[in-house]
Design goal:
The complex is a heterotrimer of chains A (223), B (582) and C (69).
Chain A lengths: L1 H26 L7 H19 L8 H6 L2 H20 L1 H6 L10 H9 L5 H21 L1 H7 L4 H26 L5 H23 L16
Helix pairs in contact in A: 1-2, 2-4, 4-7, 7-9, 9-10
Chain B lengths: L11 H10 L1 H5 L5 E3 L10 E12 L3 H12 L4 E5 L14 E3 L10 H11 L6 H21 L8 H11 L3 E3 L1 E9 L2 E9 L4 E12 L19 H8 L4 E2 L9 E2 L6 H4 L9 E3 L3 E4 L3 H9 L3 E2 L59 E3 L13 E2 L13 E3 L13 E3 L2 H23 L7 H16 L2 E3 L1 H12 L2 H4 L1 E2 L1 H18 L8 H26 L8 E2 L12 E7 L5 E7 L6
Parallel strand pairs in B: 2-3, 2-8, 3-5, 4-11, 8-16, 19-20
Antiparallel strand pairs in B: 1-18, 6-7, 7-8, 9-15, 9-21, 10-14, 12-17, 13-14, 21-22
Chain C lengths: L2 E4 L7 H5 L5 E4 L2 E4 L10 H5 L5 E3 L13
The structure holds flavin-adenine dinucleotide, protoporphyrin IX containing FE (2 copies) and iron/sulfur cluster (2 copies).
Flavin-adenine dinucleotide binds next to helix 3, strand 3, strand 6, helix 7 and helix 10 of chain B.
């Protein structure tokens, strides 16, 4: 039954990309802090798994392609990816935000210390990842202007986008393992497995035996 | 000190592994006598030498102003502190800064000085009380400009004037020695916490802003202060005063060591100013109640008045009628409440958030009333009896408030005001002083003394000796409710620690080296405390003797000064109130 | 026990510098609780930490000596 297969796909996606990180969070032994601080950590973690999830919400995921229309997939991919990017965009600020509500270092001073701690590889990786992510976000947003400008074919743009996504993921992954308070062994392994699966599917699509594919329904997708 | 010996070189790696494995037990502070598994190569420790006109030791409120004003008076100035500027000593925790605003206050400064003196039962030094009030507005204005009243943490606001002036700052350097040459101050020496390195600083003038100290008690953020400055100065001949007074802070009976929790939101508050409010606070009232009625004592600030049947305690420390307050706490009537908000972060109120709970005493054991203990001032500009050596703030026994807490919030102000005055006085002195010459042999002698605990093959763990000292000194019936027999007994123990344990304090690394020196200073402070308390055969302010419960104005309108005799023994003398020493 | 754990540390050393009692040291780029027995539970380290990585507990790791109570 096609419908139930789709439901099944959605449910299992939710279980993997929302359920598992929540589970590892719950099992981890990082101390629980205030609701606000834990909430911020959780949305950061979920935003990151959502980003990893984008590798599975693309044409590279053949199973999905067989269940949903490419346009549907593209739409969900965009919505989720933009939301996740927005959260991670402000993630460094979110880390210092709770200081606003308590005594101690002022949020702005904390923020400056945070983003200028260049001696720490985790921070440097995070900063580069952040820049790559912003580039990715901007290039996606203006892709219809950029594609002709760089004389790119749509396929070329996709390679560019996929490449940025891989680069960004490697950096961010490394960063979160190096720094994250909830990124313990279980969470790290989980992230790494997701990333490797995602990369593998992409590699398979780019370099693997190419099965004859239907042409995209509409070129460049809608906005 | 025992002779330096070779450390067991061949098995260094093994030792490191071993000490790692036993770190758990060692960090419990329970290891007494034992092998010293030295983790550093003592022979590879180097010395760095600095030179300056004025050296400020200490990075609290007093040190800040001393450095800024000495620099502004034209002297090349340097700060050295064992902790971080604005994040060590007591300064980070005080939140109420007293100002005498002539536009607001109805009384004159003369009235104020008199009121403080009445509450202090004559123990205050009016010159320093007056000076504090007169300069309070100017110092508050400086601090406001630097952003001190805008945030909880003081490091950034304190760094502002230091960075603007490019004043060199050595942090996490523990000073152990003052150096005197030809009867004049010549510099100081110590070691780094973070590097295997000793430090010597040649200076024409030194300002001690090392704060007060205690026996690393539980419940008061005093763990880094062990009267280091006082002891260093005493050892080069300076006179010390005020050791018989007691700060009587209490802490909660559950988790007594948790000072942050005990002080409610105080540590997270942004500093602010307050006006005149003279009390007679933080004596030993509750200690007496506990002594007479048993423990723990419910009550004190924030405590709920208990249900009717409060115990009346006869006798005990007296509060002058004019200054009696009722906290609605048990033992109330005239016994006059317990501690206020700790020198008044919150004027007139108990420490905010201080949960009603049973209390235990001794939170600040080993510390006297702020400004009542420290070097004896020889004039009203913070000079000691050693040429070129000044002290300010909690390191100066200015008796600004007397032997009891009087004006709320005046401790921070006093440190700021005295720091500034000492800074200017030291700069003036340095202008005409010669550059000191310190012989190399003297330097290497001092370096050897500093590193001695690292060279021991075996010895006493400083943490264990500290706990032993706490066990001797902190009991209520020794330190607070005093009597000759107990103090004589405690003194015998202290002398044993001084003569037998001090020379055998061991250290395996730079952290333990710090503990070893601190432990030694605490032991000498304990001796001072017992001797001065024995000598003052009366009760006055925060000094209470069960065997001499009354005030004796005939014999004791005098402070007690302590100095080292020619034979190295501790000597005590009286200095009448209202006089300067000669 | 006193200062309890450090999670999410970025190795900025603020806590090491701000601890009056020299409890914290750096190891492999991260802050570690080196000498918990000396912690005075003042929370300065926690308040100075830019990423709020330090978790405190009101309990002392060694027996506490008080005069009465
Ligand atoms: C909990 C609490 C609340 C308080 N509330 C108030 C209040 O509301 N209002 C008020 O006026 N006062 C208050 N006080 C008192 C006030 O904070 C102090 O009196 C004042 O800050 C002392 O400043 P200081 O500069 O003289 O000494 P400290 O601030 O104690 O500074 C001493 C400095 O010397 C350094 N040092 C010590 N030994 C060595 C050494 N061997 N080598 C190198 N450096 C060394 C230390 O690292 C430190 O930097 C409070 C104190 C506490 C603990
Ligand atoms: C977290 C960020 C993102 C990641 C990790 C990511 C990942 C990917 C991957 C791996 C692909 C497949 C590459 C290919 O088909 O060659 C892809 C395709 C695509 N992505 Fe993203 N992406 C992200 C954000 C976005 C955003 C914000 C948009 C918004 C428009 C977007 C739009 C697209 C489009 C249109 C495609 C092509 C899909 C298709 O042609 O079927 N992506 N993305
Ligand atoms: C694309 C960019 C980034 C991504 C995807 C990302 C993702 C993450 C993730 C998943 C964690 C783990 C959270 C946890 O374990 O609870 C983390 C932690 C952290 N990140 Fe980032 N991050 C990015 C950029 C940055 C940047 C630019 C900074 C600041 C300079 C930063 C600072 C931190 C810090 C300090 C932590 C540890 C704090 C904590 O775990 O609470 N990150 N990040
Ligand atoms: S709570 Fe205070 S003493 Fe303990 S580690 Fe933190 S700063 Fe140091
Ligand atoms: S202050 Fe915080 S982030 Fe910086 S080193 Fe310490 S624990 Fe790590």
């Amino acid at each position: 039954m096609k419908f139930s297969a789709q439901t099944y796909a959605i449910l299992s996606a939710l279980a993997v990309f929302v359920g598992l990180p929540l589970l590892f969070y719950a099992l981890g032994d990082a101390p629980r802090r205030t609701l606000l601080k834990e909430g911020i950590s959780l949305i950061t973690l979920l935003a990151f798994t959502m980003m990893l999830g984008q590798f599975f919400l693309a044409r590279s995921n053949e199973t999905l392609l067989s269940l949903f229309k490419p346009l549907q997939i593209q739409k969900v991919h965009k919505v989720i990816a933009y939301s996740a990017i927005t959260i991670i965009f402000v993630h460094p600020v979110l880390i210092v935000l709770p200081r606003y509500f308590e005594g101690g270092i002022k949020p702005w001073d904390a923020f400056v210390t945070l983003i200028t701690d260049f001696g720490n590889p985790g921070i440097v990786l995070g900063l580069i990842a952040w820049v790559v992510m912003v580039v990715l976000g901007v290039t996606v947003f203006f892709r219809r202007k950029l594609i002709p400008h760089f004389k790119l074919k749509y396929r070329g743009w996709r390679y560019f986008h996929g490449g940025l996504a891989v680069a960004f993921t490697v950096l961010a992954l490394w960063h979160s393992i190096a720094l994250g308070r909830h990124t313990d062994l279980a969470m790290s392994v989980f992230f790494i497995i997701l990333a490797i699966l995602g990369f593998a599917m992409l590699a398979h699509m780019y370099w693997g035996v190419r099965s004859p594919k239907p042409k995209p329904v509409s070129k460049g997708a809608t906005s | 000190m025992t002779a330096p010996t070779e450390k067991p070189a061949p098995n260094r790696r093994e030792f490191l592994a071993l000490s790692g494995a036993t770190a758990g037990a060692a960090s419990l502070g329970m290891a007494a006598w034992g092998q010293n598994f030295v983790e550093v190569d003592v022979d590879a420790i180097t010395n760095t030498d600095f030179a300056t006109d004025v050296l400020v030791i200490g990075g609290g409120m007093a040190g800040l102003f001393a450095a800024v004003k000495a620099h502004d008076a034209g002297a090349s100035t340097m700060i050295v502190s064992k902790g971080r500027l604005g994040s060590s000593g007591l300064t980070p925790f005080g939140k109420g800064f007293f100002v005498f605003d002539t536009d607001v206050e109805t009384d004159t400064i003369d009235d104020f000085v008199d009121t403080v003196s009445r509450s202090a039962l004559g123990t205050s030094n009016p010159a320093y009380t007056r000076q504090m009030a007169e300069h309070s507005m100017a110092r508050a204005a400086d601090l406001r400009e630097w952003g001190y009243f805008d945030q909880t943490l003081s490091n950034r606001p304190f760094m502002k004037p230091i960075e603007d002036r490019d004043i060199p700052l050595l942090e996490r350097v523990h000073v152990t020695h003052l150096i005197k040459e030809d009867g004049k101050i010549a510099g100081a020496a110590g070691f780094r916490n973070d590097a295997e390195e000793t430090v010597t600083i040649r200076a024409k003038s030194v300002i001690l802003c090392t704060g007060a100290g205690g026996f690393k008690p539980n419940g008061f953020p005093l763990g880094d202060l062990t009267h280091d400055g006082t002891i260093m100065a005493y050892e080069i001949g300076a006179k010390v005063t005020g050791k018989e007074w007691n700060d009587g802070h209490m802490t909660r009976s559950d988790n007594p060591a948790a000072c942050y929790d005990g002080w409610g939101d105080m540590f997270e508050r942004v500093p602010s100013t307050n006006g005149v409010e003279v009390h007679h606070d933080l004596g030993v009232d509750l200690n007496y109640t506990a002594y007479m009625t048993g423990n723990p004592v419910a009550g004190g600030p924030g405590a709920q008045p208990s249900d009717g049947d409060t115990i009346e305690v006869e006798g005990g420390p007296q509060t002058p009628e004019e200054f009696q307050r009722d906290f609605g706490a048990p033992g109330g009537d005239g016994e006059g409440g317990g501690p206020s908000s700790g020198e008044g972060g919150a004027p007139g109120a108990p420490p905010p958030g201080f949960e009603p709970s049973a209390n235990v005493g001794g939170a600040s054991a080993g510390m006297a009333i702020h400004k009542s203990e420290g070097l004896v001032p020889f004039d009203d500009r913070c000079a000691s009896n050693i040429a070129g050596l000044y002290a300010a703030g909690d390191a100066l026994g200015s008796h600004m408030s007397g032997g009891i807490y009087t004006q709320v919030g005046s401790s921070l102000t006093g440190s700021a005001v005295q720091g500034a005055i000492a800074g200017e006085a030291a700069a003036e002195y340095a202008e005409t002083a010669d550059t000191p010459v310190i012989q190399d042999v003297r330097i290497s002698e001092i370096v050897d003394e500093i590193l001695a605990p690292l060279r021991l093959d075996a010895g006493y763990g400083p943490a264990w000796v500290t706990q032993t000292l706490q066990g001797i000194m902190i009991p209520n019936f020794v330190l607070y409710i005093k009597k000759a027999s107990m103090m004589t007994a405690a003194l015998a123990y202290v002398e044993e620690l001084r003569d037998h344990h001090v020379p055998m304090l061991r250290a395996a690394n730079m952290h333990e080296l710090r503990l070893a020196h601190e432990t030694r200073n605490m032991i000498l402070s304990a001796e001072m405390k017992m001797r001065a308390s024995l000598m003052r055969t009366e009760s006055r302010g925060s000094h209470y003797r069960l065997d001499y419960p009354d005030m004796d104005d005939v014999n004791w309108r005098a402070w007690i000064n302590i100095y080292q005799g020619t034979d190295g023994s501790m000597q005590l003398e009286k200095q009448p109130f209202d006089t300067w020493p000669t | 026990m006193t200062i309890k754990s450090i999670n999410g540390c970025i190795g900025c050393q603020e806590c090491v510098k701000s601890c009056p009692c020299d409890v914290i040291r750096m190891e492999h780029g991260k802050a570690v609780i080196a000498y918990p027995a000396d912690c005075q539970i003042c929370h300065l380290c926690r308040m100075y930490c830019p990423v709020d990585a330090i978790e405190m507990s009101p309990e002392k790791s060694i027996p506490v000596i008080v005069p009465w109570g």
